[in-house]
Amino acid sequence: MEHLLKATAERAWRYRQQLDGRSVAPTPEATAGLSRFDEPLPQASTDAEAVIALLDEAGSPATVTSTGGRYFGFVTGGALPATVAASWLASTWDQNAAMVAMSPTAAKLETVAMGWMLDVLGLPSQSGVGFVTCATQANFSGLAAARHAILARQGWDVERQGLFGAPEIRVVVGEEVHVSALKALTLLGLGRERVIRVPVDGQGRMRADALPPLDDKTIVLLQAGNVNTGAFDPAERIIPQAKAAGAWVHVDGAFGLWAAAAPERAHLMAGYAGADSWATDAHKWLNVPYDSGVVFVREPQHLHAAIAVNAAYLVQGDTREPHQYVPDFSRRARGIEVWAALRSLGRDGLADLIERTCRYATRFAEGLSQAGYDILNEVVVNQVLVSFGDAETTRRVIAAIQQEGTCWAGASVWQGKTAMRISVSSWATTDEDVERSLEAMIRVAREVRETV
Ligand SMILES: *Cc1c(COP(=O)(O)O)cnc(C)c1O
Fold first, then answer.
1. CB within 6 Å of ligand 1 — which residues?
2. What is the pLDDT of residue 314?
3. Taking a C-beta distance cutoff of 8 angstroms, is the pair 371, 408 a contact?
4. C-alpha to C-alpha distances, 450 to 9, 394, 409, 420, nearest whole angstrom
5. Beta strands 293-297 and 383-387: pairing type?
6. I need a labelling partner for 322 at 20 to 30 A (CA). Which of 133, 175, 196, 219 fits?
7. CA 451 – CA 396 distance, rounded (Å)
8. How far apart are CA 83 and CA 78, in angstroms?
9. 139, 187 in Cβ contact below 8 A?
10. Per-residue model confidence (pLDDT) at position 309
11. What stretches of 153-202 show up as alpha helix (H) in DSSP?
């Protein structure tokens, strides 16, 4: 195994070194090379090194280089060096993070990482925390806790009885709710069509003056960080009102919660600590490898009651048993990478990561605006929406930028207008990456517009 691991480390390092010279999107030839994987399952065994050689030779060239500094697609962080290395070591350990008895190390690092996250995100320190696969699962888990709490106080045990015959739960969302939150509602039997949608403003923020009457049978689902504009719902106005009515407030903060960690952005998170549950991702702005989401619930017993099960053969220690806070049972020890990210960044490094990526977004907006293109959003965090003209022209420019290969950003439609969405979420992005990408975007946009 020694040679295998060392040779793989060499391959990984070669991949990293080649990132800068590569097209961010894989070339058509590289993608075509994936056909090497189209083979019948071999009858005989293959040496592990030969398997890794095939993986590297056919697989690596067809990756999207989202770990490089010029990937601005979706909201995709890179992976900090300490987290890549921690992930290797953790895979070598192959720990099952379900129970303390199965991995004291994994359980300990989850506990440490959750304390640190509650601290830097400014959330209540006694909250219950689950390490899940993504923000969709975090939304699911937080909303499961909400469903439990609302029905339990009306005398209905949803975990035992299910939803047939249960009292109704109302769910209030903004018009700009993320599809993943709707997916979570779907899976929870709360339905994605029967939600009450509150109108939003030009940035996608829920309008506090347009809220329906709230009560203690209602979940209010807020968003910290709109996936297009980066805007935050006005928590300071909505949460006190919702709490006074006895409603449960859940926050989808897949990337936005991390604004709390940067002194110059923390004001965007004002009021959010008053909610009951929060969902976020670590694989976005915290820059850990996929997959990694986190759910926080103010009163841990609601998350526990919604999710925990037990069986005679399971060991229940005196301390927190990780599986009792997540939908999974057996799972990989993803808390280790969260710990490694925070341990390596420190408070200052995290603040710098968030602030720097936000500043880069502002620089993109300035540069593109000076070149004559319309910026469609107020750039409050790391998201920029730019239009290159009408929908057809904008779509052509985006395709040409992706094909040119210096950088990558995707398309979106914002309140009826087609736009390129630039999301700066990676620790790896430098000033030079931003200037090179801006230059490429502007050059390609001019070329496309000249040929129209
Ligand atoms: C990315 C995102 C999600 C979904 O996150 P996954 O980790 O892909 O499940 C949900 N809500 C918002 C606001 C997001 O930006």
1. 75, 134-136, 178, 180, 223, 225, 227, 252, 254-255, 281, 293
2. 72
3. no
4. 46, 13, 21, 19
5. unpaired
6. 219
7. 11
8. 10
9. no
10. 85
11. 158-161, 179-187
Share of the chain above pLDDT 90, in %: 97
Q: DSSP code of 226? A: -
Residue nearest to atom 15 of ligand 1 (CA): 227
pLDDT of residue 452: 65
Distance CA 259, CA 273 (A): 13
Ligand 1 probe mutation, 66, 132, 134, most atoms within 8 A of CB: 134
Nearest to 237 by CA among 209, 265, 213, 214: 209
% of residues, the chain, pLDDT over 70: 99
Q: State the residue for tokens 């630039």.
A: 422
Exposed / middle / buried, residue 43 (Cβ in 10 Å: 0-12, 13-18, 19+): exposed
DSSP 323: G
Angle separating helix axes 391-404 and 431-450, nearest 10 degrees: 130
pTM of the model: 0.97
* pLDDT higher than 70, residue 85: yes
Burial class of 169 by CB neighbour count within 10 A (0 to 12, 13 to 18, 19+): buried
Residues 6+ apart with CB under 8 A from 307: 130, 141, 144, 145, 324, 325, 326, 327
**Residue in this structure with the two tokens 């690092």, named with its chain if needed:** 109
Structure tokens given for 362:
């502002």
Tell me: pLDDT of 368 over 70: yes
Q: How far apart are CA 278 and CA 339, in angstroms?
A: 19
Q: How far from chain centre, in Å, is Cα 122?
A: 18
Question: Given a cut of 80, is residue 96 above it in pLDDT?
Answer: yes
Q: What's the gap in Å between 140 CA and the centre of ligand 1?
A: 12
